[in-house]
Design brief:
827 residues; Porin; Immunoglobulin-like; Ubiquitin-like (UB roll); mainly beta; globular; disordered N terminus; 24-stranded antiparallel beta barrel; signal
Length: 827
């Protein structure tokens, strides 16, 4: 700031530095006395340099500071400095009880904390604990011996943020319209939507999941709230409680919808090395298609994908059991298959117990309960580093009961294995009691030295009279008569990377196989193989080839699909390629061009012909905007059809600080962060993922719960008239939380001013000028000169010295660049 002051007002910086250096050898407890003769100031009696008199001296006042704990950013908060009770020429930082709680101190350390009053605690009484204030950062250092946790990659629960109260609505809307050219058979239009709406109050989240569809050709529509529930995290217990309509998330028993209460361990609250995995869904779309993933009739993911192989990786980690996948092609054909999200062996760290317990009654989509009340609970207990035992019970009076027990074993270099037995006892009205058992064996192994892994391998056999709870309910209330009762199922998924150290030869192969048969119907099989290879030809680097083959067999019929593609870079993030698609006896060959230069605008076009020589083509475009993500596609097949489809995903979030329309995945209840820039509009956030609206409010969506997250202002993309004192904050949010971050920003003019008090004097040299957000916009020089930056016409400013606001400055309503210097009264 000094560089903008004319030479006759300059501070003799060299003399001041010499003064500071001359006293740098003094002990920390010794006060420094400045000789004002070293300053080139006319009025040496009107100087406030008290903050430089003591080591790390901060004038008594309240400041907005960045807070770091042992070098890691914690949050930005207001911190009050008071005169130290031990010495009048010293100050200390008052930490509030919440700030001290966030330190995650051991009980012995907490007993050493000095209480100044109900809102002021001093932690420097803990041996070797220090607090320093440098460049707007409050740096708290605590020896690790006084803290509960020591994992550097994990934020302890004491620092998790439940966010602020608010309302939200997330949506995903897909639509498709097609016209059949062949035989003039007409056109069809359909829409579908799903998402959630809800409210946050403290740590509680109220949610309502909805889905709906509309068929234009049949003039049929449907919309329903298929799940209404409330939940809250219990961080200190690493658990979560849910009330309302729930889908059971058991690792022992099958998934059942019920109305009641559930209390379960939440692995996401554990350190990363103790967490589980999320399932993946792989397949091939023969054209631009809509993919819907559902479970028990409930849509949990829906998107539009381009032609070729697809891999859905962002499902919720809590998804368990069997998933139904539907692929709707643009020519109207539909293919379906199932994915079993089998769990890796159920291992638990030594001495720790994971649990999941529920009480309720089975319920239907119309929100009515149907079936006897039941209790279910399962657990896993880590006996040692190698052994875990697990099991559970499901009790429902004399109607349906089941128990399960199993053991997991870490085989070290051989991987991990688990085995369990489940027995059910069920009785339908008018029949005798039936007993049956089910046996399961699971295995997983990562071969680091071979760059490969068996993600999951499992085998399950069920006796004919064995019933799951959902099968019992279907038999009793839906008259299914046990059709399709499971007999055997075995699954294996794995991958292998060849030549991992050579980018020009690296090849990755993914394999999946599932076989399932039944006691009274034919079985089904699904095979999948995909491979990708990167290589160079004639000096052209980055050529990639991908191959995917899938076969589904059901009731003696094979459904085969193959996709092969090769792409070659032809410029900056642009590719030319060749695609081969085969579906049964039908094949299509296409030439393609892709442009990924703009991350927020990706597109691809293809053109080619099928085996009969009929022309076909399609296009795919993805636009990521601050308010929504839009995926669109168009397809054409000669003498067959032309179609247009797309998906729009977004959300709306409102709190007492404001509201904003924003992007959103709409697939799971992730956290989000509302950003307040003090009315400054158009501020880009996190790589332009979001942008503040006209009111200075923006929302960064899809923040992973229980993980440290940085909210950033894209400083390089700010306008020249915008100033920000701090461009990044870090927070850790609980599930479904609406975080709130306010950035101290100013947008406006730069003004050379001379400040005058009512008695004709000027504020002391060294005083600060703050705006209403406590952002420093100037420091007062000799004679009351202050170079104000980022101020708005008509804005109120405050001059601060001796630790408090002394007077108010009113910026004129009209500012002109022609004014070299303006006189501003400070009243």
């Amino acid at each position: 700031m000094l560089f903008f002051i004319k030479s006759r007002y300059k501070l003799s910086i060299a003399n001041l530095i010499l003064c500071l250096i001359a006293h740098s050898s003094l002990a920390a407890d010794d006060a420094v006395e400045f000789s004002v003769d070293a300053l080139d100031a006319a009025d040496r009696g009107n100087i406030d340099l008290s903050r430089f008199a003591e080591t790390n001296y901060v004038a008594p006042a309240t400041y907005l500071l960045d807070i770091k704990i042992n070098g890691r950013f914690y949050k930005q908060d207001k911190v009050t400095y008071i005169v130290s009770p031990d010495a009048k020429n010293k100050t200390l930082a008052c930490l509030t009880p919440n700030m001290v709680t966030a330190l995650a101190l051991k009980e012995k350390a907490l007993e050493m904390v000095r209480r100044i009053d109900d809102r002021c605690l001093d932690i420097t009484t803990i041996p070797s604990a220090t607090i320093s204030n440098q460049e707007g950062t409050l740096d708290i250092t605590i020896p690790q011996a006084w803290m509960k946790y020591s994992d550097p990659d994990w934020t302890p629960p004491e620092r998790w943020d439940n966010g602020v109260p608010g309302l939200l609505l997330d949506y995903s809307i897909s639509g498709q319209t097609s016209r059949q050219i062949k035989n003039g058979s007409g056109s069809s239009t359909s829409f579908s939507a799903y998402g959630q709406t809800g409210m946050n109050v403290g740590a509680w989240r109220l949610r309502a999941q909805y889905q709906g569809d509309y068929s234009g050709s049949e003039h049929q529509h449907n919309f329903e709230f298929n799940q209404i529930y409330a939940y809250r995290p219990l961080p200190m217990q690493a658990a979560k409680v849910i009330l309302g309509e729930i889908y059971s998330n058991s690792k022992v028993f099958d998934t059942v919808r019920f109305t009641g209460i559930n209390l379960a361990s939440d692995e996401r609250m554990l350190p990363p090395n103790l967490q589980g995995y999320a399932p993946q869904v792989r397949g091939i779309a023969k054209s631009n298609a809509k993919v819907t993933v559902s479970q028990s009739g409930r849509t949990i993911y829906e998107t539009t994908v381009p032609a070729g192989p697809f891999n859905i990786e962002d499902l919720n980690t809590s998804v368990r059991g069997e998933l139904d996948v539907k692929v709707e092609e643009q020519d109207g054909t539909i293919s379906t298959f199932k994915v079993n999200t089998a769990n890796i062996p159920y291992l638990t760290r030594p001495g720790y117990i994971r649990y999941n317990t529920s009480v309720g009654r089975p319920s239907q989509y119309n929100h009515k309960v149907q079936g006897p009340a039941f209790y279910t609970g399962d657990f896993s207990w880590g006996l040692s580093n190698s052994w875990s035992i697990y099991g559970g019970v499901l009790l429902s009076g004399s109607n349906y009961n089941a128990w399960s027990t199993g053991v997991g074993r870490d085989l070290d270099i051989l991987g991990a294995i688990s085995a369990d037995i489940t027995q059910s006892i069920s009785k339908l009205p008018g029949e005798s009691s039936q007993q049956g058992m089910s046996f399961k064996l699971s295995y997983a192994k990562t071969f680091d030295e071979f760059n490969s892994s068996i993600t999951f391998a499992g085998y399950r056999f069920s006796q004919k009279k064995y019933r799951t709870q959902s099968q019992y309910l279907d038999d009793r209330y839906n008259d299914y008569n046990s059709t399709g009762r499971d007999k055997e199922m075995y699954t294996i998924t794995g991958n292998k990377t060849f030549w991992a150290d050579d980018p020009d030869k690296m090849t990755t192969v993914f394999l999946t196989y599932t076989h399932q048969n039944y006691w009274d119907t034919k079985g089904q099989d699904r095979y999948g193989l995909s491979a990708s290879r990167t290589f160079s030809v004639a000096g052209v680097n980055g050529i990639t080839a991908n191959l995917a083959l899938y076969r589904s067999t059901y009731q003696g019929r094979n459904d085969d699909s193959l996709s092969f593609s090769i792409s070659m870079p032809i410029g900056d993030s642009r590719w030319a390629g060749y695609d081969l698609q085969m579906q049964g006896r039908r094949n299509t060959q296409m030439a393609s061009y892709s442009d990924n230069r703009d991350y927020n605008n990706l597109w691809r076009i293809r053109a080619g012909a099928d085996q009969a020589g009929k022309a076909s083509g399609d296009g795919y475009y993805q636009h990521r905007a601050a308010m929504a993500q839009i995926d669109t596609n168009v397809s054409y097949q000669q003498d067959n059809y032309v179609s247009l489809g797309g998906t729009v995903r977004g959300g709306i979030t409102a709190t007492r600080y404001g509201a904003a329309i924003h992007n959103s995945s709409a697939t799971q209840d992730t956290a989000r962060i509302m950003v307040d820039t003090g009315g400054v509009a158009g501020v880009p956030l996190n790589g332009k993922l979001a942008r503040t609206n006209f009111f200075g409010i923006g929302v960064v969506p899809d923040v992973a719960s229980y993980n440290s997250f940085d909210t950033r202002i894209d400083v390089d993309a700010l306008g020249e008239d915008v100033e920000v004192s701090h461009a990044i904050t870090t927070s850790t949010l609980t599930e479904g939380a609406i975080g709130y971050e306010k950035f101290a920003m100013s947008q406006g003019e730069r003004v050379m001013s001379q400040l005058r008090l009512q008695d004709g004097t000027s504020p002391p040299f060294g005083a600060e000028v703050l705006n209403d957000d406590s952002v420093s916009v100037a420091m007062v020089m000799d004679g009351g000169i202050a170079y104000l930056s980022g101020v708005k016409p008509g804005e109120k400013l405050f001059a601060v010295w001796e630790g408090k606001k002394q007077c108010t400055i009113q910026v004129p309503e009209k500012l002109t660049h022609k004014q070299a210097q303006i006189l501003l009264p400070c009243q």
